[in-house]
User: What shape does this take?
Amino acid sequence: MNETTLIGLFVAVIEFGTLLYLAALGETIAEKSGVLNLGVEGMMAMGGVTAFWAGVETGNPWVGLLVAAVAGALVASVHGLVAVVLGGDQVVSGLALTILGLGLAAFLGEDLVQERARAKFGSLNLGPLNDIPWAGEILFDQTAVPWLALALGVATWFVFTRTRVGLILRAVGESAAAADSSGTSVVKTRMIAVMIGGALAGMSGAYLTLSLAPGWSEGTTAGRGWIALALVIFGAWKPGRVGLGALLFGGLLALEPRLQTFGVEISPILLSMLPYVLTVGVLVLLSVRSRNRPSVAPAAIGLAYRREER
Amino acid sequence: MTSASVELTNIWKRFPGGVTANAGANLRVEPGTVHAVLGENGAGKTTLMNVLAGVYRPEEGTVSLDGVPQSFASPAAAIAAGVVMVHQEFRLIPSFTVTENVALGESPRLLVRNSLEQQVGDLAERFGLHTEPGKQVWQLSMGERQRVEILKALWRDARVLILDEPTAVLTPQEATELGRIVAAMAADGRSIIFISHKLDEVTEFCDEATVLRGGATVAASLPVAELDKSRLAELMVGEATEVSIRRTRTTDVGDPLLEIRDLSMRDVHGVVTVDDVSLSVAAGEIVGIAGVAGNGQRPLADAIAGLAPIESGSIAVRDLDITPASPQARVDAGLAYVPEDRLGVGLAPRLNVIENAILRSYKSLTKGPFIDADAAEQMCEVLVDDYNVKVGQLDAPMAGLSGGNLQRLLVGRELAGRPSVVVAAQPTRGLDVQGVAAIQDILVEQSRTGTGVLLISEDLDELLALSDRLLVMHEGRVVAEFDPDAVTRAQVGEAMAGAVE
Assistant: This one.
């Protein structure tokens, strides 16, 4: 193992971490408002295919990113309509969204498979910073997207803990009835949270097809949406912890193809199981806390809200 | 004359299904006063308050605040106009701090934690509400949680606060403290509406009282200082209505079938719900238990049925101690239970009529590992015939039946096992006149065959008509025993309100 492969590994950790973080951050926002959206994989695929298409058309990766965000939000709004507005089952609707998103992405992308990537995010050029040994290559030779993800994470944390909007969002996710009786529109708040979640999942897909693995093919999301879902639980619905978890789970994804190069004799299949094993472990740890203490999970997650009427 | 802070005039509210909850109710509350709204369960107190708080829209009548007519489209509109209701079930978020819960309704765009906590603390201080603004609500006692609810109302500068049976969840000390807080708020010029049926509190905390009965106001704005408790109790329960079926009392009672000795219970919060209760029911006897809801009747019934843990005491059926027995073992010992919560505890609404009918006895209907469908249907048909249950399809979901028919099936099922003792909790509540009569007939008939019946009810007329002996529960204790033929409604009402020593 030499310096170059090690640096390559760390670069990949950041890249995969970013991919997972964008999607998981979006899901965190949706779940904090009380809406479980199991459609992350589908929204990611839709984001990926539309971003790649827009990149081919315009040659500008930022346009691709924007288009993907819009596509993700639109797909998420289907879930919002079914699960939030109509009060349908969130699990069923979310699973349907994954199947719908994957299928629609494959259909739309049929002719894009042979296409060569015309738009890619370029590395940042930060002058002297890029020349710092190790850090220069790992942190500053990246595209702008990891930094964008970090900024979005900090912003989310700030909104959650320091603003009225965040207070309302969390209240809706904890007790829709309490939020409603204090004059908040539960449906509107949840709908917006779900669509922001979708936009971030779409951006995650865009990062995949425009930077991490430029190009489009069916199945390119490869289950990363599900890892992002587990990551939300692993990070206990906290933007910061979800970020650290993203680096850990991203590290596992980055290690997978490199294990053999490093001469380690572990099946990559075992490694790909690890995120889920870790998540179950965290769930166990969280549940052995004091009995009276409310769970860290948003209390109203998965529950449709209808105002009680006699 | 200055305009009243709240004026409700001739309020009518009917619900689908024909229940008229308010039939011309009036209420006038002066600014800066504590006004009690009194009445038995079902007198329409909560409905009237929900009209004021914008939850319901009345079919008739007007709501005015400070002389200005109002028409609230939603609770939010009422809150905006300064009317806030503190419900019996608190609407707090356990994982939020006191400050976060309080600020939820109205907060600056950016939250600065220290300064918000300071503001909430100052407001609490002003009204003598002891609270810790930084604590999470799940760590608080019920009394502290109630103070947070009141603080929420004050934070939005509520001019009219409605407290719906506020002392139901409080310890006596906390109740006394609530009295001080209420007085401080009134001194600040706010109007407080205090819904209660505890006469002690009314005479202690309130300036005026309005009494509701049968959805209408029977006495408006009585000055509390000039009233005694027995007068209030009399107003609450009213004079005897039409003479209902007075059954001939059982003169020769048999052996005691149900014996409860020194039973005490606590709820999950550690509050005593049943306090050293002893009673017995003999063969052929109907023993009635009267009491305002929430005075231990429901836990008592659940304890007898084996559905709630007890702290001390013993329960015996036909001299067999069933204190530690499972619900099934109690049924085998000869106990039948008609629970208060028909559709939740008694029946499974989504299962069909046959399935519900055999829930108790399916074990005798098995054919190997399967249920004998023909035998089950036959059994169900017998039950439906015997108890005159009006059903469409036997394989249609239970939930489609009317309340009266649901109850007939439930009672029939429970009695089919020929029990020695029947515990019936609110068996006629919510039924129409025919349904009530049918269930009452069944219970009387059952007692004639030598079954002991423990009848828990909030309907005083029913209890006076059916019981051989009438016990009154108040705050978990049996506080009085009456001969139904030699007692007035007012006397029972006083005991229910805790006015007897």
Notes: Confidence is low (pLDDT under 50) at residues 240-244 of chain B. The interface with chain A takes residues 15, 56, 75-76, 79-80, 91-96, 100-101, 103-105, 107-111, 138, 152 of chain B (CB under 8 Å). Residues 172-187 of chain B form the longest helix (16 residues). The longest strand of chain B covers residues 19-29.
